């Protein structure tokens, strides 16, 4: 399905990002994966290499321009282009009311979840050929503001808008941009957000990759500016 494609996945050390790295590798993609720390992304690269896939793993903070440039430059030097970009990196931040929300934490979440997506997309797009695909991870709280979701919700609202702007601006270049709400999964972030929830009632990230595979493949040619719910996805 993805044979020969070069896919960059941010925030790939755990959860959905790690699951997508494995799924894409199994479908023949060459991988560029990142996390903020070398020690967290290196084991994932080792797992993927055992499957016979080519992978470039780099530590980079997507909210830091210099890190992003280094990441994209290394990807292009290694593989020559970026066919698929999955903007998955993000942080949850405090679950408190706005009046109690620390300013430094607010800026940290917005920088990681929204500014980081802008920086990575801006750096990667010049190296994406016609037929390229940008997949932005959103959330149930990116279309409905809920109490005590603060900067995370606001940042994801921004990602929804940025996804649509990219779709409009890149349509003539044949590059598509879509948003995906993965829904609740058995991840560390979900556990932090809902500590009282039984995690076994949620699917694993590995069970939730179908729409991401579809959007990365040529099957979704011409599909842009859309929002998908991963757990409700069925091909048209």
Please describe the structure with a list of short key phrases separated by commas or semicolons.
Rossmann fold, 40% helix, alpha/beta, seven-stranded parallel beta sheet, 7 helices
CATH superfamily, by name, is NAD(P)-binding Rossmann-like Domain
**Average pLDDT level:** 96
How large is the radius of gyration? 17 Å
CATH C-level category: Alpha Beta
* Number of individual domains: 1
Summarize the helix and strand pattern as letters.
EHEHEHEHEHEHHE
Q: What's the CATH topology name? A: Rossmann fold
Beta fraction: 5-15%
What is the rounded distance between the termini? Answer: 17 Å
What is the β-strand count? 7
Number of helices: 7
Q: Which regions contain 5 or more consecutive residues with pLDDT less than 50? A: none
Structural class: alpha/beta
CATH architecture: 3-Layer(aba) Sandwich
The strand line-up of the biggest sheet is 3-2-1-4-5-6-7
Q: Major beta sheet, specifics?
A: 7 strands, parallel
Helix content: 40-55%
User: Quaternary arrangement of the chains shown?
Assistant: single chain
Approximate shape: globular
């Amino acid at each position: 399905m993805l044979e020969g494609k070069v896919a960059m996945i941010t925030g790939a050390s755990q959860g959905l990002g790690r699951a997508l790295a494995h799924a894409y590798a199994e479908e023949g993609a060459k991988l560029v994966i990142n996390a903020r720390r070398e020690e967290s992304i290196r084991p994932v690269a080792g797992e993927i290499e055992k499957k016979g896939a080519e992978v470039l793993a780099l530590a980079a903070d997507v909210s830091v321009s210099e890190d992003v440039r280094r990441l994209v430059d290394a990807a292009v030097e290694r593989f020559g282009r970026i066919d698929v970009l999955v903007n998955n990196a993000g942080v949850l931040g405090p679950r408190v009311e706005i009046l109690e929300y620390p300013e430094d934490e607010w800026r940290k979440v917005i920088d990681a979840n929204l500014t980081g997506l802008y920086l990575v997309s801006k750096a990667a797009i010049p190296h994406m050929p016609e037929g390229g695909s940008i997949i932005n991870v959103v959330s149930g709280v990116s279309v409905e503001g809920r109490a005590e979701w603060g900067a995370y919700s606001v940042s994801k609202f921004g990602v929804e808008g940025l996804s649509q702007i990219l779709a409009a601006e890149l349509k003539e270049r044949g590059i598509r941009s879509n948003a995906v709400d993965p829904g609740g999964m058995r991840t560390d972030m979900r556990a932090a957000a809902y500590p009282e929830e039984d995690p076994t009632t949620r699917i694993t990230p590995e069970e939730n990759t179908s729409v991401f595979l579809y959007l990365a493949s040529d099957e979704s040619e011409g599909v842009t500016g859309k929002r998908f719910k991963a757990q409700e996805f069925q091909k048209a």
